[in-house]
Each structure stands twice: as C-alpha cells, then as structure tokens.
Amino acid sequence: MLFAVTRGDEHTAPQAAGGVEVGHIHGIGVDPADGQLYIGAHLGTFSVTPEGTVEPVGAVRNDTMAFTVTGPGRFLASGHPELGTDQPVHLGLIESRDAATTWEPVSLAGGADFHALDVATDGRTWGIDSARGLLLTSTDNRSWDTVANDQFIDLAADPTAQDVTLATTGTGQLRFYDPAGTSTAVPGSPTLTFIDWAAPDLLVGLGPDGTVYTSTGTASVWQPAGRVPGQPSALEVTTTGWYAASDQGLFSSTTSGTSWEPVFTYGTAP
Q: Are 261 and 243 in contact (CB under 8 A)?
C-alpha cells in the first residue's frame, strides 16, 4: 500500500495563512545566522515569525517541493518554476546564498524533481528525485550517484557523518542506505512518512496520521509522543524547537513532540 501524502504535484487550490497565500508546505528550516524560521511551499519561500506572521521572501514564486537550510543564509531547494517563466518544468537542484532572496541553478535542471533533500555534516547531499523514483547522493551538488530505485517519501542523513541515510519508502517502511546502494530494513519501526535525524541519539518521525514517534537508540525502538493535527507534509527538529507542517497549517513543539501549538493555520484567501 502506497501512502498518499501532501508532498506532490496534486495540489488543491492555494490556501492562505494570515492573508498571505502559501499553499501546501513541503520544507521547513531555521537559518543559524539569525534563528529565522523559513518554509518552502507551493507558492514560494516564506519567512515566519513566532507569532505566525508570514512574509514571502524574494521575487521568485517557485513551486518549492524540497527545501533545506544548509548553513547561514545558504539554502537548497527544488521544484517547479512559477508560471510564465522559460525554465524547465523540473528545476533540479537550486541554491540560495542570501537566505532565499535569490536562487541559482546548480545541477540536474530539467531532469530531477527533488521532493526531499538533506545534507550531512560532511557535506554529502542526499535527495529523493520523485520524477524518476530515485534516491540520489552527491559530494559536490553537481555530479550525482544513483543509490536506489523505489518510491520514497522522505530521508534524513546521519549527523555523525557516517555516509548513511535513513529513508521512508512509499509504504512507510524505514530503511538505511549507504552511497553504494546497500540497503537495510529497520526492524520494529512504526509506519513513518516524514523523518528527521536531529542528533546522533535522536530520531523523530511522523506517521501518516500525524502521530509523532521518537527513537534514542538504533532506530529500531520507537516511542509515541504526541500528534500533529492533520495529514503531515514536512518535519524539522532543531535545538530551539520542533516544527511540523500538515494540511491544516504549521505547528511547533517545545515539549519534544508531546504537544503541538499552531504557528499558523490555513484559512481562506480573501
């Protein structure tokens, strides 16, 4: 059974947060330069205040299908160009070095449609190319190696730089992968859609119903925590807070996932 998740091209009409049209959220990140929270969504990249004020960043309104913060002011993303441009339908990997004010193409333009991206502490990038059903990896963001061919939802790179990533498959199974393509299923893990390897001893996952799970060991022992309202679409765990997006809005937790408060919820565009 493949799980339907809101990370995809099958969008309903764009929704609004505080009067600003955002659309479904597909990525969350916090800039270490200033602690600013950002989201990558159907209608572009946005900054979000703790009070839930949402502001578009830059002039580009790409349909952002993958988004991750890699360093101070440095973001990676992928998706599709806004309407009316002459760019290829799949942006491949794009990068911003000014906190999403501008974006530049890096690689795989016209080929890859990344729906998840993560960068390990040693600089290795992992990506899920949903256009071709591939798990890819790169050490320079320009040349890519195919790791596996399957339906994937999300991934999380090992923060200890062990050249390993965890990925969730289309059936919610959790598997380890290394750059050579060696794959190992994680026994005993719950059905998960979105995951984050927040620290060497902390894994966080979201089930398809929004249930939050945590693991502090080998990823085979998980404990349920709280629950994110709605059907989840993104997860980001930081030292300053936990964030999750769903078809109901953006939520945060300061209680290690046991309780969640809305940063903003979706409304109807005026």
A: no
